[in-house]
Amino acid sequence: MSLVLDPAAQDLLFREARTANSFTDEPVTEEQVQAIYDLVKYGPTAFNQTPLRITLVRSAEARERLVQHMAEGNQPKTAAAPLVAILSADNEFHEELPALFPAFPQAKDLFFSERAARENAAGLNAALQAAYFIVGVRAAGLAAGPMTGFDFEGVRKEFLDDDHTPLMVVNIGKPGADAWYPRSPRLEYDQVITTV
User: Fold this and answer.
1) Residue of 36, 76, 26 lying closest to 56 (CA atoms)
2) What angle do CA 33, 38, 44 make, to 5 degrees?
3) Cα–Cα distances in Å, from 42 out to 5, 50, 64, 120?
4) In whole angstroms, what is the distance from residue 57 CA to residue 66 CA?
């Protein structure tokens, strides 16, 4: 069976999309970010948790503060990207559960009263949402450059608080010259899929 999604959309979202390492100076607008969020907010999570938090780094002052926490190889591209987003997990996401999961409002206290359980669930579900966000950036015709090469504790202290755990930093914009490294190999179907 073939996929229902148009082949051009498949290419845009997956086959041709890659991590961008350089960007043009064309700005990423608030309207584009709103459209991305309005699409990806529908991605599934457990109990409809919505632990992902997105901190947009737009000002020059904030950009300088972020760049100092990036790994050396990530500093120039983070300094030059039109928009940078810090993606984090809100470990107090459970406070929103009664509104977000009205079919089972007691899930907030039944499953997530302990901080360790919340951190585990927040990390997993925010990572799912981060993947949706990257695909959403691609759907907007932009490129994403997700990175985990940074000082996590430094970024948390600089931009977040004790209730938020940084997951990744994502550079966003139109790809620039020589934006892509060569395509890396992927595992084949029979290397990944097992039927029992």
Assistant:
1) 36
2) 120
3) 17, 10, 33, 21
4) 8
Mean pLDDT computed over 126-131:
98
Pair 168, 71: CB distance under 8 Å: no
* Sheet of 143-147, strands arranged across: 52-57, 83-90, 164-173, 143-147
For residue 12, give the nearest of 132, 130, 139 by alpha carbon.
Answer: 139
CA atoms within 13 A on the CB side of 76: 4
Tell if the pTM clears 0.90, that is, is over it.
yes
Q: What is the pLDDT of residues 140-188, one digit of tens each?
A: 999 999 999 999 999 999 999 999 999 999 999 999 988 988 999 999 9
Place of tokens 């595992």: 187
Q: For the chain, what is the mean pLDDT? A: 96
- Where does the pLDDT of residue 89 fall: very low under 50, low under 70, confident under 90, or very high at 90 and above? very high
Alpha-carbon distance 169 to 166, whole Å? Answer: 8
Cα–Cα dist 59/57, whole Å: 6
- pLDDT category at 1 given cuts 50, 70, 90 is low
Number of Cβ within a 10 Å radius of residue 159:
18
Return the closest-CA partner of residue 142 out of 179, 193, 189, 108: 179
Opening angle at CA 28, ends 24 and 31, nearest 5: 155
